[in-house]
Amino acid sequence: MRFLIDSMAGKLARYMRLLGFDTIYSRKGIREEDVRKSKEEGRIILTRNRRLEGENIFILPTEKTEEQIIWVMKKFNLKGLIKPFSRCMECNGELRKMKKDDVKGKVPFYVYLTQEAFSQCSGCGKLYWMGTHGKKLKKKIEKIIREL
Ligand SMILES: [Zn+2]
Residue 69 C-alpha to ligand 1 middle, in angstroms? Predict the structure, then answer.
């Protein structure tokens, strides 16, 4: 299942990617062409703009990011499709696993020494590893899954 999320819910877009869902983020709000293109691509539009109407448009019932995530997961029955850390939070690109040797010199030396698992975004090239930030995100994901 794929999504387009408008600028009023940017944080939700990042979380959707973190959970592995193909999610595009519109900075300029949702325009006619976005609605048309989303239909072609089979994307569900999530927005806070109550004036928008369409068969693939759904209005988020809350402004709170964590409540939005829970709502979306339940609404579209996504629990079984969650694939944490499989998609880039910045650009929506898919992450591919990297060999430790291949990231030598591309990540801080301390990170190279202390981490074993690395992945790279196929879109923007960003390298990911499970540092302190990743552990925090992992806890958040676990909390979300518990509530589903
Ligand atoms: Zn990326």
Answer: 21
Question: Can you list the pairs that 126-135 forms with residues at least 24 positions away whose Cβ atoms lie under 8 Å?
Answer: 126/88, 126/90, 126/91, 127/98, 127/103, 128/85, 128/88, 128/95, 129/103, 130/85, 134/85
120 alpha carbon – ligand 1 mean position (Å): 8
Question: Ligand 1 is a single-atom ion; what residues have CB below 5 A from it?
Answer: 88, 90-91, 93, 121, 123-124, 126
Q: What is the pLDDT of residues 67-96, one digit of tens each?
A: 999 999 999 999 999 999 999 999 999 999
Note the pLDDT tens digit of each residue in 5-61.
998 898 999 999 999 999 999 988 899 999 999 999 999 999 999 999 899 999 999
